[in-house]
């Protein structure tokens, strides 16, 4: 009898479940694309640019083993984004040399079992050792949101503690590396490069001071919440919304697709104005 393939729980899946629970994602899409992988997700322009940047920095290939394409103009020349990526990749290499980082591995997939049905999975951009020989994880970001205080995925160090969608990554990665390498609270660094210019970048150390408390929340609340949906995928219900559906890879075969936008009721006068006028 063929054994059932174990499903992977990643930080990306955790975020997708959060988006579903907040009404920002469709359960059918989460199930078919993010969990069962029945259809590949569609890479956005920023995602493709980030993949190209990471390739310039570390040589990381796409999941199918191919080289990320350089963004080009209609004339076949590098776009302004591609040129910025090239310059910032040079800054990355200069940063690595300046801090004495030794790159041990890159684009490394690590999975650890949590039970008979599920694994935890992370993909390390870079595994490094510093000048003292201490091992650390280094994650590379190429973003237009550096120093953005207001976006919920903005990279502002003073607001990082509020960014659930961002801070779940070092939490998850530290947990997996503790299970895989028996190293509690392994250092996790971000190298965050601006995609808006050639010069701006920052290096963060994502420190977890109350490590045991945070890990307990991950193991007892966050992961079990995801497993709840994996155990019973009927809980992932369709949430059709026109704009979301039009960009969904499942739109041509989905029975729930929204083919037209809903009518939005708007008001000429608000309640406050009417109450003041009466």
Q: What is the tally of helical segments?
A: 8
Query: What Rg, in angstroms, do the CA atoms define?
Result: 21 Å
Flag low-confidence runs. Answer: none
- Strand content is 15-25%
Q: Outline, from the CA principal axes?
A: globular
The CATH topology label is: Lambda Exonuclease, Chain A
Characterization of the model:
The protein is an alpha/beta fold and 278 residues long. It has one domain: Alpha-Beta Complex (Lambda Exonuclease, Chain A). It is 37% helix and 18% strand. The protein has 8 helices and 6 strands, in the order βααααβββαββααα. Strands 1, 2, 3, 4, 5 and 6 form a 6-stranded mixed sheet that branches. A hairpin with a 6-residue loop joins strand 5 and strand 6. The longest helix is centred in the last third of the chain and has 21 residues. The model has no long low-confidence stretch (mean pLDDT 93).
